Amino acid sequence: MSLNYKVLNLEGTEVGSVTLDPAVFAGAVNEALVHQVVTWQRNRTRQGTHATLNRSKIEATNKKPYKQKGTGRARRGSDVSPLLVGGAVIFGPQPKSYETRLNKKMKKSALVSALTAKAAKATLIVVDNLSVDGKTKTFAKALSKLGIVKGGAVVVCGSRDEQLERSTKNLQKIVNLPAEGVNVYDLVKHKYLICSKAGVEAITKRVKGA
């Protein structure tokens, strides 16, 4: 069963239609799995290098700071006690890995869910051609005519386009990705997905070949 979807030009005028593969743009939406994959993606960016100084990491003398009795002060056995200013930290964060594992089937299903949601909510915008002159102002004007004023967008074309990259790099909440770089986190983070017809074909080929 095919899925017909309208195609616009950069002026916002409907110029035709494209057939979307239902296996990619009309699958089952699994929100729990989407959340799981987004968490996995974000965890991969965490360095896990945070660290605090515990008692074993502070270089200090082991000498008792003052005698046990007769001073009227609390009994101290060390200058690096966590109770003192400049002392060690109790149960502070230490270096760790946040990496989790997901199999390919789960990642693919989550990507299909995210793409399906874009098509179902009509936040997938297919244009006949994404060729621009490389000017930010030109592409910003095109976004306005396509009805994208806020919420951000992921822009995908069939192959790398340096002019398109130049046009989008200074626009806030606009990310230009190749078809092989389309991911669940960016699709969830940005409201719209703008694809050229070639971009739709490239995404379909990637998902079905994964």
Order of the strands making up the biggest sheet: 2-1-3-6-4-5
CATH topology of the largest domain: Ribosomal Protein L4, Chain: A
Q: What value does the Rg take, in angstroms?
A: 27 Å
CATH superfamily of the largest domain: Ribosomal protein L4/L1
End-to-end Cα distance: 21 Å
Uncertain residue segments? none
User: Globular, elongated, flat, extended or rod-shaped: what is the shape?
Assistant: elongated
Q: According to CATH, what is the class of the largest domain?
A: Alpha Beta
In CATH terms, what is the architecture of the largest domain?
A: 3-Layer(aba) Sandwich
H/E series: EEHHHEHEHEHEH
> Could you say which structural class the secondary elements and strand pairing correspond to?
alpha/beta
Characteristics:
14% strand, single chain, Ribosomal Protein L4, Chain: A, 210 residues, six-stranded mixed β-sheet, 6 strands, alpha/beta, 34% helix
Structure, described:
This protein is α/β, with parallel strands linked by helices and 210 residues long. The chain has 2 domains: 3-46 and 102-209, 3-Layer(aba) Sandwich (Ribosomal Protein L4, Chain: A); 48-97, no CATH class. It has 7 helices and 6 strands. It has helices at residues 22-25, 31-44, 104-120, 136-145, 162-168, 184-189, 197-209; strands at 3-8, 14-20, 124-127, 153-156, 174-177, 192-196. A 6-stranded mixed beta sheet has the order 2-1-3-6-4-5, sandwiched between helices. Helix 5 (162-168) links the parallel strand 4 and strand 5 (174-177). The longest helix has 17 residues, at 104-120.
